[in-house]
Sequence to fold (174 residues):
Amino acid sequence: ELGAPAIVSAFLPTDSAVFSYSISALRMYSSSFLVLGFNVIFAAFFTAVERPVFAFSISFGRSLVLLVASLLILSSLFGDKGIWFSTLCSELLCLCLTAFCAWRYFRSHRHENPLPAAERTRFRHICWTTRFLCLNPTVRPRAMPWLLIWRIFRLRARRATAAPSRREGARPPL
Fold:
């Protein structure tokens, strides 16, 4: 009774023969929304970290390949209930694919450290001052929020335009 009768009654009269079937169909179909969010978020994540193969396989799998396969299999096994549960089945299969892609991505980036030691301390300071909870200093810059990227860029630009030190061959002041 999570609002399915109210939603269906907006489109069908309550005394109709299709009303009770529509309520049960809506409940079966809407159960897939619990899993859908994880797949969409991870597809967007893999797009953001420039992993197009992972993002494409998740998006294409959940929208076409897994959905058609689960529709064909479940409708032949369970009839009309299989049609409504096919979205849940395809989202669960896509969640397994998403978990595999996430495992491969995070396993390959576990020991990666793109920042030198001096930059890591500055990065921690930047994280603290912007009120972000960045406990892992090895986060890639392209996966950071835009504000952190802007601050690191500004820090590097200031360092690049600063006068060279004596060790770099600068002349001492007269």
Observations:
- DSSP finds seven helices and no strands in the chain.
